[in-house]
Amino acid sequence: MTIPILSDDLISHVSGLVAAYITTQRNRYIHVALPLSINQRTAMAGFFSSQLLDETRLLVLNEERVDNPDFYPMLQRMGFDNLPDQATMAAVTFADCVVSHGYCTDELLFHELVHVEQYRQLGIPKFADLYLRGFLSGGGYFEIPLERNAYALGELYGRNHSRPFSVADEVGRWISEGRF
Ligand SMILES: [Zn+2]
Q1: pLDDT (tens digit per residue) in 51-106
Q2: Counting Cβ atoms within 10 Å, is residue 4 exposed (0-12), middle (13-18) or buried (19+)?
Q3: Residue-range domain boundaries for the chain
Q4: 38 C-alpha to center of ligand 1: Å?
């Protein structure tokens, strides 16, 4: 595993590329993605705002896979050998648009909706910047604080589906404590 050291200027540049990738993918998929089903809304209702549940769109891909960003080869030439491969992810979330590779379980949906909430509170540019910086400083995908937050809240949900808590409050608390 290699994480090269990048200059601040280069990090800002790549962070802009990540944000552009997220926006492009979101705009590509949002028109064919669907609102959450009644069952999905019911399962998520105690954890997410009704506005988020109304506005989020979900696309289930069966054959197709989400493309990796076209700046990956540039990063690989710089020495990155552990970039997250979008095709092997169970799902990828682009702002308000969740794209799932195959059937989306409630546990997977929950994890992705935490990302939707993170995007709602941070906006795409800040989300992209924090995601990239988290990857660079942590050494890989699982060390990214935005992921750790989603996995931690997902674990709480997994332990007890019938004990509601506010994901928005939890994400807000992580932001105010500077944990991203
Ligand atoms: Zn995630």
Answers
A1: 999 999 999 999 999 999 999 999 999 999 999 999 999 999 999 999 999 999 99
A2: exposed
A3: 8-172
A4: 23
